[in-house]
């Protein structure tokens, strides 16, 4: 598998693959960082050009995942590397608890250890769920969202695409959060939040319109 990115969140994804026993042929990709080494942890090659990535997909392993947290960048990288021939692939920790019925996890998701997902949950393409988040029954999360550590999303809540919900936030049952919106850390969201805003507080209120 190719992990896009070689810093920060990419190292979290590496640990999932290590624990899952899936590091054979593993490489990273970083064509941005000038200080990026050629090899990470003295073991994993870092590719630095689109030609190298295309060759990797054709000759080594077509799978790739995004090791960067920002939703906008995740979507851009998905589109770019899919065109190079890559297959967008989910990376799910063996320490995550996932319901047995009606759960649909889209391609290219990253689900870290301690995450708990109940039954009848829909998670869109390219979304990331950080440590110890709890997603209860009948929740729907859109594409390319970032759900930070210890977030709780309660029954029937609906999260739009390209949203960021930061650490410790609680989303009440039946709440709807619009596309491209941000929920600040520690917020308690008791009513619907429209698209393209940042909300914060207890209860959460709109603080900024994008």
UniProtKB/TrEMBL annotation:
Give this protein's Gene Ontology molecular function annotations. galactoside O-acetyltransferase activity
Residues covered by the PglD N-terminal domain:
2-81
Q: What is its EC number?
A: 2.3.1.18
What highest taxon heads this organism's lineage? Bacteria
NCBIfam families of this UniProt entry? NeuD_NnaD
In which family does this protein belong, per the annotation?
Belongs to the transferase hexapeptide repeat family.
Its name, as the record gives it, is: Galactoside O-acetyltransferase
**Source organism of the structure:** Chryseobacterium taklimakanense
Q: Which gene encodes it?
A: lacA_2
